Amino acid sequence: MKRERGRRPRKRVCSFCVDKVESLDYKETHKLRKYVTERGKILPRRISGNCAKHQRQVTVAIKRARSIALLPYSVE
């Protein structure tokens, strides 16, 4: 199998923009868990595929959910 050199994978599309989500809620932990690694870290934009606006909202929502113990800070 011949592999093309210099070819980048397709850019991921922001799932929140596709669904036309205006704001995120910290209580929706089932949505937020997709953007947290198994070690408890927040996924970066280049991996999650979010736009800058929604990535900021995801980060704030995850931090709020952590502070009231809906999501863990880290997994041991």
Question: Can you walk me through this structure?
Answer:
The protein is an all-alpha fold and 76 residues long. It has 4 helices and no strands. The chain has helices at 15-18, 29-32, 45-48, 52-67. It is flat. The mean pLDDT is 89.
In short:
Helices cover 37% and strands 0% of the residues. By secondary structure, it is mostly helical. The longest helix has 16 residues, at 52-67.
| Cα end-to-end separation | 42 Å
Q: Which term fits the overall shape? A: flat
Percent range for β-strand residues: under 5%
Q: Main sheet, how many strands, which sense, barrel?
A: none
Share in helix: 25-40%
Instruction: Please tally the β strands and state the result.
Output: 0
Tell me the Rg in angstroms: 15 Å
Question: Whole-number average pLDDT?
Answer: 89
Give the topology string: H per helix, E per strand: HHHH
Which structural class is indicated by helix and strand composition? mainly alpha
Low-pLDDT regions: none
Number of H/I helices: 4
Lay out the secondary structure.
Layout: H1 15-18, H2 29-32, H3 45-48, H4 52-67
